Amino acid sequence: MLTLKNISVKFKDKVVLDDLSFQAEKGEIIGVAAPNGTGKTTLFNVMANYLKPNAGEVIIDDNYTYKSEKQEIKIRKRLTTFPDQDDLFDELSGIDHLKLYGNMWKGTTKHIPQIVGKLNMGNYVKNKVRTYSLGMRQRLCFAMMAAADSSIMLMDEVMNGLDINNVSLISEYLIEMKKEQKLIFIASHLLENLDLYADRVIFLSEGKIIHEQRFGRGNDDYIKISLDPHQYNRLINEYVIPDNHLYIASHLFCLPLKGMKQAEQMKWVEQLLGLKEKELSIGPLGTVEYYEKHYH
Ligand SMILES: Nc1ncnc2c1ncn2[C@@H]1O[C@H](COP(=O)(O)OP(=O)(O)OP(=O)(O)O)[C@@H](O)[C@H]1O
């Protein structure tokens, strides 16, 4: 549905995207994780054609690229980007914004009351935007994407400025959108939140995708326990630790269970609990853990 083919972007001498290729299908939510200034927004800008890459191309639905105006129009109908709060019109109401997006992309406004209801915006949506708080504006921006209902949605920092209740409200909405076969990209620093709905999270560094984490497809389980460096050193001196263990960000010891017999697993659980009576868990690594692994 969306293919990135050998995308490179340079600002003067600074390479931000370096021969990056990627393919995404409908019904997927793709998280994009990386520290500030790595290139997440640049990647989104290339996907939306707000920025021409120095090399490479974006292909939508196997057919359309930004190379001709006619094809770009086809893509515009299929792809929306998360509105910037600064681009909202202070003197218009929320409902005016939703109607605008509904009419422009979907050709109707019939679905808007339902969106307003689902996002708990009924008590403010008719007021002018200039009276809105940061979180109210952010919910409106999300509602505008829902009103457009395009098949591809690029959401940069969708959860910015939202309280916990609204983060969970929008997370649930995203899961519904996924069921409707939307393809959604989400760049976020709320890493644990991505675990709730993302099918894949890609990690960027030096212009490349350095890791792709897939959820829900038999991910490898680990025994995980937090150990300080002193405890970790004691562990590796006292026991023969499998080479494929991880010690993430000098605080989290992770032992892969793959290929380990049950008796051995039990032995390790006992040994680790003996070392430190602290929380031990078993499961796959989450986005936070991969993030610390790659960027610590
Ligand atoms: N128009 C531009 N001109 C020059 N440099 C730019 C431009 N846009 C982005 N950059 C640089 O490209 C790099 C990547 O920026 P980008 O905004 O894509 O990062 P990001 O991962 O989205 O960061 P954040 O998490 O802070 O939003 C940064 O070093 C930034 O300074």
From TrEMBL:
Pfam families per record: ABC_tran
MF-aspect GO terms: ATP binding; ATP hydrolysis activity
ABC transporter domain mapped to chain residues: 2-231
Keywords: ATP-binding, Nucleotide-binding
InterPro entries, sorted: AAA+_ATPase, ABC_transporter-like_ATP-bd, ABC_transporter-like_CS, P-loop_NTPase
Protein name: ABC transporter ATP-binding protein
Biological source species: Oceanobacillus bengalensis
Lineage, highest ranks first: Bacteria, Bacillati, Bacillota, Bacilli, Bacillales
